[in-house]
Every structure is written in C-alpha cells, then in structure tokens.
Design goal:
Layout: H1 2-12, E1 38-40, E2 43-45, E3 51-53, H2 57-61, H3 69-75, H4 84-110
Antiparallel strand pairs: 1-2, 2-3
Length: 113
C-alpha cells in the first residue's frame, strides 16, 4: 500500500516519469483560445476546431476532491490562449488521471482480504 500511495503522490504532482508518455495528441493548428468545451469521441474540444485527441472518458469524468481536474483545468483558462507548455501540461494531467484510475483499482484489490 505504501508503494501505491507513493505512486499516486508522484502522479498527482506530475513527477512520475509515466506522465511524460503522452496518450493524447493536439493535432489542429489554430489560435489555441479556450472557448466552449465539448467532449466527443475521445476528443476534448477547446474551441470549434481544436481539440485534444485520445482522451479516455475515465480521465474526462474522473473526480478528485469534488471536482473533475481534466475539465476544471480547461474551464479555468476559458478565454485564454494555451501556450506550448500549457498543451504539454494538459496532456500530462490526462495521463496522471488515467494512471490514478489504474492505481486505485489495484488499491481496491489489495484492500480485499
């Protein structure tokens, strides 16, 4: 359990090497301005034409502490332009959420005696 807790800590602080292995893409050029968000077919649209592709539903809907980080992070930037580092950061957040879900499933199994 201690090792799993340590893994969760690293994931949540984006310090785990796993967050550098992106599972998403940001394929469309544009102004990178966050507007109306929409999730559809594993795509998180930040505006009419630009999106993060390959975002699993589990990451989009994941709750931590009463809010959904994958949604809140973008909502907090509505009307702003995402820079290169912002785009990379969001992709790390998605990996961290998917990995958190995986670790929590292991914790649930370990907890069963």
């Amino acid at each position: 359990m201690v090792a799993l807790g340590g893994e969760l800590r690293q994931l949540h602080l984006l310090e785990s090497p796993k967050v550098e292995k992106y599972i998403t893409q940001y394929p469309e050029d544009g102004d990178n301005i966050v507007g109306k968000l929409k999730y559809e077919n594993e795509r998180v649209y930040i505006n009419e034409t630009q999106y993060f592709a390959g975002v699993p539903l589990v990451a989009w809907e994941f709750y931590i502490g009463g809010y959904q980080p994958a949604q809140k992070w973008l909502k907090d930037r509505k009307g702003r332009e995402l820079g290169y580092e912002d785009i990379l950061h969001y992709q790390k957040v998605v990996v961290a959420l998917v990995e958190t879900d995986r670790v929590l499933k292991v914790v649930d199994k370990v907890g069963v005696v």
